[in-house]
Specification:
about 375 residues, alpha/beta, Metallo-beta-lactamase, Chain A, Rossmann fold, 2 domains, 7-stranded mixed β-sheet, 6-stranded mixed β-sheet, binds zinc ion
Length: about 375
């Protein structure tokens, strides 16, 4: 089995890989890279696209789906597969991150999308593709891709230690393409959640918590044990995630539902509240955060960033200027989580995605089969 690393290798963003088949290529994810411009914004996919048989999407974050309109604009006519939740979230992500001209010419093709459920096994281009819940967002999945001789696992984004979402175990494989977003960060999620709780408690005048609409928002709500507000536009999506049934850990839905019901609705033009205020996105690039981050900075209203800050994003600039704090709320594996995934998979050859080269080098002593030299643009054979 031969695969092409199309994006997210030695870098964060534009995550994408292709499995080559005699009948054509099967693509997994098609992200964009926030902070990049030109060709580097999109996966490194050169030449015609008419040999792409199918695109499977793991979840609707921009670094995994943001280039879908771009591929459609290049003339892609193959199959598109994702879960119902990813399908529901995709238009909002494309609205925030797709090239406006691409999106106008090629809006999200909802009628063309084929749905699958997390846990389903798909058969495409002679591949048997098993899926499992990712623990990262509602409807998010990992893929285990077999050709009869070898098995490749593409984790996409997973969270082994989520307080909110369930992750299904990763099966044994010959090559593990895993979520290395946090490099060798050893601090467990529960410790980070406590630190975030303490930071919020120390700011009784209120504070801004920028967060992606899907996934991390629920992790934050689980970590805030005091009154808070949400940007009113977020509420329908938050409520839908709380009601996502089997995606959530047993017992947590009641807590989240109760907290969300008690949360205030904040609307554009309201004064900034004397409580924590959740707004999306997580980096000030799109959504209400694009307005709220500068407003908070201008009024010296405390801001806590809790996720990845792409270079040149408003969040990164604010943090660099000392006008925002940052504590990671893990929505990707920390060191122990990735080592456990790799060991359960049988200590296979491994390639990390979604982090810079230095973070891969830091992981190498812990995941000894790691091919830390792999970069976007490379092709590799599953051993
Ligand atoms: Zn993600």
């Amino acid at each position: 089995m031969r695969i092409d690393l199309l994006g997210g290798f030695g870098e964060k963003g534009r995550t994408s890989l292709a499995v080559r088949r005699p009948s054509g290529r099967v693509l997994f994810d098609l992200g964009i890279k926030v902070g990049a411009s030109g060709a580097e914004y999109y996966p490194a996919l050169q030449g015609p696209v008419d040999d792409i048989e199918a695109v499977l999407i793991s979840h609707a974050h921009e670094d995994h789906i943001g280039a879908l309109s771009w591929l459609l604009a290049k003339g892609f006519r193959g199959r598109i597969l994702m879960t119902a939740e990813t399908k529901a979230e995709a238009p909002a992500t494309l609205a925030g991150y797709a090239d406006p001209a691409d999106l106008r010419g090629h809006p999200f093709p909802a009628g063309r999308v084929e749905l699958f459920m997390p846990g389903d096994t798909l058969r495409i281009a002679g591949l048997e593709i098993a899926t499992g819940r990712s623990g990262h967002v509602v409807g998010g999945v990992w893929f285990a891709i077999g050709d009869g001789a070898r098995r490749l696992v593409y984790c996409a984004d997973v969270v082994p230690e989520s307080a909110v979402f369930v992750m299904d175990p990763i099966p044994a494989c010959d090559l593990l393409v895993f979520d290395a977003s946090y490099g060798a960060d050893p601090v467990p999620g529960a410790k980070r959640a406590e630190a975030i709780g303490r930071w919020i408690a120390a700011r009784p005048q209120g504070c801004l918590l920028p967060t992606p609409l899907f996934g991390r928002s629920l992790e934050l709500i689980a970590a805030i044990d005091r009154p808070f507000a949400v940007h009113a536009a977020m509420r329908p999506a938050l409520e839908a995630q709380v009601e996502a049934g089997p995606a959530l850990s047993p017992g947590i839905a009641d807590t989240l539902r109760h907290r969300l019901a008690g949360a205030g609705d904040w609307r554009d033009g309201d004064p900034l509240p004397a409580t924590p205020l959740l707004c999306d996105d997580g980096m000030g690039q799109a959504g209400p955060s694009a307005q709220l981050l500068p407003q908070a900075a201008a009024q010296a209203y405390p801001v806590l960033l809790t996720g990845h800050l792409p270079a040149n994003s408003p969040g990164e600039r604010l943090y660099a200027e000392g006008k925002a704090d940052w504590i990671r709320m893990p929505t990707h594996p920390t060191l122990a989580g990735n080592v456990a995934i790799w060991e359960k998979a049988g200590r296979p050859a491994a390639i990390g995605h979604s982090c810079p080269p230095a973070d891969l080098a830091a992981l190498k002593p812990h995941i000894t089969t790691l091919r830390d030299e792999c970069r976007t643009g490379d092709s590799v054979t599953v051993p």
